[in-house]
Write a structure and sequence with these properties.
Mean pLDDT: 91
Low-confidence stretches: none
Shape: globular
Order of helices and strands: HHHHHHHHHH
Oligomer: single chain
Strand content: under 5%
Distance between the termini: 47 Å
Radius of gyration: 21 Å
Largest sheet: none
Length: 258
């Protein structure tokens, strides 16, 4: 927001450095703990879509890096870090999604297992598409990006196509949970992890169309912006109602105690 909507680019640069520092710290701790802890959980209990937040965080470093790199005197290094973050996030997605799909297809499945966090399966691809699109649009800023331009376009389109593939599968899974298995549809904070992917898919498709010149792709964000807004509104209303019920219950408990 500071990089795109304000003239305070210095704040965006400071937040980028802070983000990179936190990324190094948290990912190092996460992977170390996941590796050395004992006993380890079985795969069907130990992994879900939330693991892909590692990908989301990595790609966010790339997105912001592409935006702030032109403000550096040594912009080549900043763009190089943004490019490496894009590639590392892509590598992490491929590794984790293989485990998640293996869990989906070869282990017992219950409605409670299908949490909204699995929408990050698509959201992580969407932000990877956004990161790649930002790098494509920055080709004029660093000659190396121009040299690998065809690779960036193909790889980024690959991730967008994979994100699109996930959408009907996740919708069908939700219909199975709430329509076939009759699980009541009630507010859960995890539904915000469904809202993010929808919004990110909308934004990333818009940027991909802009970066590649595939103008027909603009039809997708024109539709999905309304779907994303509807999902945000419904989730926000559910959150407000849940907070209202909690406050009312606390007040009644206090009155009864008094």
């Amino acid at each position: 927001q500071f990089a795109m909507l304000t003239p305070w680019s210095g704040v965006a640069v400071a937040l980028w450095f802070l983000g990179m520092g936190l990324w190094v710290l948290l990912t190092s701790v996460f992977f170390t703990v996941a590796t050395v802890r004992e006993p380890k959980p079985p795969l069907e209990k130990g992994i879900n879509g939330a693991w892909l937040l590692v990908v989301v965080s990595t790609e966010s470093i790339s997105v912001l890096g592409s935006l702030v790199a032109p403000t550096f005197q040594v912009r080549d290094l900043a763009f190089f870090l943004a490019l490496c973050a894009y590639l590392v996030g892509a590598m992490l997605y491929i590794l984790f999604i293989a485990l998640i799909l293996y869990r989906w297809m070869f282990f017992p499945w219950t409605p409670d297992t299908l949490t909204p966090s699995y929408w990050i399966n698509m959201g992580a691809l969407a932000i990877t598409t956004l990161a790649g699109s930002r790098l494509i649009l920055s080709q004029g800023e660093w000659s190396f990006l121009t040299e690998i331009g065809p690779f960036l376009k193909g790889f980024t389109l690959f991730f967008w196509a994979a994100a699109t593939w996930w959408i009907p599968l996740l919708v069908i899974a939700g219909i199975w949970k709430h329509g076939v298995e009759r699980v009541p549809l009630a507010y859960d904070p995890q539904y915000w992890s469904l809202v993010f992917p929808l919004g990110m898919f909308t934004a990333s498709t818009f940027m991909l169309a802009r970066a590649t010149g595939l103008d027909f792709l603009y039809l997708v964000p024109r539709l999905f912006v309304w779907i994303s807004l509807a999902a945000w509104t419904i989730t926000f209303i559910g959150m407000v109602r849940e907070l209202g019920r909690s406050i009312g219950a606390n007040r009644r408990g206090a009155l009864a105690a008094g």
